[in-house]
Amino acid sequence: MAEKAHEIRLKSRPAGMPNAENFQLAEVTLPEPKDGEVLVRNMWMSVDPYMRGRMYDRPSYVPPFQLGEVLQGGAIGCVMKSNDARFKAGDLVESMLGWREAFVGPGAALTKLPAAGAPPQAYLGVLGMPGMTAYTSFHRIGEPKPGETVFVSGAAGAVGSAVCQIAKIRDCTVVASAGSDEKLAWLKSVGVDATVNYKKGNLLQNVRAAAPKGIDIYFDNVGGEHLEVALEVARPFARFIECGMISIYNDEAPAPGPRNMAYIVGKRIRMQGFIVIDFIDMREQFYADMTRWVLDGRIKSQETVESGIANAPKAFLELFSGGNTGKMLVKLD
Amino acid sequence: MAEKAHEIRLKSRPAGMPNAENFQLAEVTLPEPKDGEVLVRNMWMSVDPYMRGRMYDRPSYVPPFQLGEVLQGGAIGCVMKSNDARFKAGDLVESMLGWREAFVGPGAALTKLPAAGAPPQAYLGVLGMPGMTAYTSFHRIGEPKPGETVFVSGAAGAVGSAVCQIAKIRDCTVVASAGSDEKLAWLKSVGVDATVNYKKGNLLQNVRAAAPKGIDIYFDNVGGEHLEVALEVARPFARFIECGMISIYNDEAPAPGPRNMAYIVGKRIRMQGFIVIDFIDMREQFYADMTRWVLDGRIKSQETVESGIANAPKAFLELFSGGNTGKMLVKLD
Description:
2 copies of one chain form a homodimer. With 333 residues, the first copy, chain A, is α/β, with parallel strands linked by helices.
């Protein structure tokens, strides 16, 4: 009997902030897996800020999502049927074929989860793309030294919270900004030294008070005002890890950049953008360190979970209103 | 008989664009050189854009100039009297004690010019701080590869024109911007592949036309609109060498930065500020390569010369109106 599954398609391209109308729930009938193909039922799917970029129709490092087509993203699923010798029913696998309850796809597009003892959904978060993003760039671009001060914006998100804790393991002082006192309390509980609620008071004054000697590393998830503040408080030879600029992803007109760009010259700042695949050579080192840290309890992670494929757009939209603490996940039934 | 000399002092701190009123010509009587001291009569003095920064009263990588005190800057002079065994009358020396016709200072503050056959004033330009700025940062931050495209702003200046020619020696394609057709014609004559007059037409369109495949390295002397354009046309993994931002040095209110900062993330751009002493370890390599290139005629340089200490402020002000091609010098009598 043919299996059916729901999926989410891009109905229209968002202008500015996305909304529910940009998405469409559809039902499809899955074909039988052919030679080399596998039928997977997803258990968890990931929504991530970078997906906003793929909703624009423009050239980028990943191709844009197509109108009327199913969206794609990280997912963890269980193999139901396999015509690929590398997989058998019951295997837990990671794919980039999410935003659907189930799919038939080539075995080559799947990675079997290691049996390390971590919960499966950790491979979408702290042991997955967000964790690897944090780990690789913090070491490779940040070049942290013990005793240095690290400022992390978007610190309660999946990437930011991993950065904060890795920085503590590297004996840095960590200043974290997030948008609610609950998030900041959680960050304090995992060892962050000082916190700033960016929705309260003057951001520059608050960051200055939290980092009176200035900062050596800025991990940027946010852009905008946070970036300007980071330039202001940067010490000479600071490194800026440019991971994302969620504060401007939805701007309809391009927003002016920092008014203090000249500090890049005078303070000899190094500012570098990246995407996680640039550091794929660090993959084994990442899995080894991070798995150990997670199992030892040295790195903790939070999840915000929405249930059911129909709520995937809602989960995605919450990323932009700060609705998530830690990794935003959708649990599929 | 005691010697007399004129010098230029900072009379008032400029607000915005400096003008002649900010400077004061004074005459002093030189003391006799004490033990370890030398009396030097300057032949050439240098004015450079970075000096504008020292006219602000703020903490920076070099201390601010003090009101009522003589200004300091690179100079080439001739030793007249020496009480330091390392120097004798007639030696040509470089110092950072310029903006004066003559001075008595410690021998430790002087460097004897090498007898390489280059004209003395070259050690204020292509073989001096501007040349070393160009050479070190282009290699260390730019990491040029043959066939890459390099965009240089302020390309007719002392640093920019050296960068253009070094990039050609490294087999790069060079696109240069400057503010007059005469400057651009000279840049063409030394091998630059394409030129843009930033005072004519739309800068973005003109740079796109000059570099249709985009740019791999941006050497920034200018900041402002040039920086925004460079971000726009940058190829993935472009390196931005942040040498200076002369277009905004005199802004009274901080100007907004580039509206397209998000490209730093998406295009994985590395943007790095520096000052020349950060690369002091490359000094010997710089002198060896650059002296050979200058004497072989592979690197040419232009000079714009004002005569007499009284014209030093005028020479300095011309830096901001584009009055110089190549190195701006003041010839002292």
